[in-house]
Amino acid sequence: MKQFFTLTLSLLYFMAFSYGQTDQRLAIQGVVVDNEGVPLENAQVELLNTSFSTRTNNSGKFGFQQVPNGHYIIVAKKPGFATISKHFQLNSDTSEVRLIIEPETNRLEAVTVTAQKREEIAQEIPLSITSLSHDAVKESRIQNINDLTAISPNLYASDPGDRRTVTSIRGIVSTSYDPAIAVYIDGVNQFNLDTYYAAF
């Protein structure tokens, strides 16, 4: 019995050690600076498609602990500065990640979208996407989905008179209860005309 117990403990230790080797977790250290090299305090830094998110300290430094090896997109943003993204491969050779963000008047922002069910940078995916920032929505005074047609190309949305919305993209439309255009509100599919109201 004692030999069986010892063998079991040894096997469990070996399995835990092997699993630790394949799922190695590392720390990421970095700094966020402006285009003149001045550290930026309280900038938000996150790894896309993970729960890792933090803010920089008064020296512009940030860190994440226990991050699995792999390829990541890191995003840094701060009010008054353009959001930037950077691809990097995390492994034991990864040194400090340096992120340089410029004033928003100097460059276009990196736009994060979830068009393919994961967070990606809009400029890097091969899809036709119209994305609007919070400021653009405010400046355009968009109140509902019908207002989007004024600023989004190839989009048509109309209320046929019964307080529902019929939507078409590039001429593809259906006024039946099985719409041709999928509409999601907070990740929930509005599967027919009775569930999809422009006021949402």
Question: Any descriptors?
Answer:
three-stranded mixed beta sheet, Immunoglobulin-like, alpha+beta, 2 domains, 200 residues, 13 strands, 14% helix
Q: What does this entry show, briefly?
A:
The chain is α+β, with helices and mostly antiparallel strands and 200 residues long.
Task: Write up this protein.
With 200 residues, this protein is α+β, with helices and mostly antiparallel strands. It has helices spanning 2-22, 134-139, and strands spanning 25-34, 44-47, 53-55, 61-68, 70-77, 84-90, 97-101, 112-113, 120-121, 155-158, 166-169, 184-185, 188-189. It folds into two domains: 26-124, Sandwich (Immunoglobulin-like), CATH 2.60.40; 134-189, no CATH class. The chain has a four-stranded antiparallel β-sheet, with no helix packed on it. The chain has a three-stranded mixed β-sheet with strand order 4-1-7, with no helix packed on it. The protein has a two-stranded antiparallel sheet with strand order 8-9. The radius of gyration is 24 Å and the shape is elongated. The model is unreliable at 17-22 (pLDDT under 50).
Level-1 CATH class name of the largest domain: Mainly Beta
Distance between the termini: 67 Å
CATH architecture of the largest domain: Sandwich
Helicity, as a percent range: 10-25%
Which series of helices and strands comes N to C? HEEEEEEEEEHEEEE
Structural class determined from secondary elements: alpha+beta
Q: Total number of helical segments?
A: 2
Rg, rounded, reads 24 Å
Number of strands: 13
